[in-house]
């Protein structure tokens, strides 16, 4: 899997803007919870909101949780059967993101799905 730097951008290139609360997509409440790391609210929203939505970069809620390092959110999404094989606009799956960030526990959790 090519690194973000090899692909012509900084490592985690999308993350810089993703972490700014003012840019959080308000029409996706699940995304807002993930940006804030609000596991408690996320666990409530998962029951009524879709977790397979994609943002303008093609990232699912699980992509975001993995990229932002919000492990509790990611594990909660995995427990609710978040899709792990979906690719974003750059062709990255959540597994590829976890590998890129070097998170061995997340890699294992994704592989178990």
Task: Put the structure in a nutshell.
The protein is mostly helical and 113 residues long. It has helices at residues 15-18, 29-36, 39-45, 61-68, 71-79, 94-101, 104-111. The chain is globular.
Task: Describe it.
One of its GO terms (cellular component) is endoplasmic reticulum membrane. Acts as a molecular chaperone for G protein-coupled receptors, regulating their biogenesis and exit from the ER. With 113 residues, the chain is an all-alpha fold. It has one domain: Serine Threonine Protein Phosphatase 5, Tetratricopeptide repeat (Alpha Horseshoe), CATH 1.25.40.20. Helix 2 runs antiparallel to helix 3. It is globular. It starts with 14 loop residues before the first helix and ends with a helix. The relative contact order is 0.15. About 18% of the residues have low confidence.
Quick tags:
mainly alpha; 7 helices; 46% helix; globular; Ankyrin_rpt; Ankyrin_rpt-contain_sf; chaperone
Protein topology:
Elements: H1 15-18, H2 29-36, H3 39-45, H4 61-68, H5 71-79, H6 94-101, H7 104-111
Helix pairs in contact: 2-3, 2-4, 4-5, 4-6, 6-7
Subcellular location: Endoplasmic reticulum membrane
InterPro entries: ANKRD13, Ankyrin_rpt, Ankyrin_rpt-contain_sf
Keywords: ANK repeat, Chaperone
CATH class category: Mainly Alpha
Might you state the CATH topology name? Serine Threonine Protein Phosphatase 5, Tetratricopeptide repeat
How large, in whole angstroms, is the Cα Rg? 13 Å
Inertia-based shape: globular
The domain tally reads: 1
């Amino acid at each position: 899997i090519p690194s973000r730097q090899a692909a012509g951008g900084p490592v985690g290139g999308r993350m810089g803007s993703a972490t700014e609360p003012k840019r959080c997509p308000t029409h996706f409440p699940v995304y807002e919870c993930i940006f804030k790391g609000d596991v408690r609210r996320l666990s409530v929203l998962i029951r009524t909101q879709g977790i397979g939505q994609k943002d303008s970069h093609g990232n699912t809620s699980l992509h975001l949780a993995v990229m932002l390092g919000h492990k509790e959110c990611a594990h909660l999404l995995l427990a609710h059967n978040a899709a792990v094989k979906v690719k974003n606009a750059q062709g990255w799956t959540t597994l590829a993101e976890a590998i890129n960030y070097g998170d061995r526990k997340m890699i294992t959790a994704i592989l178990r799905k």
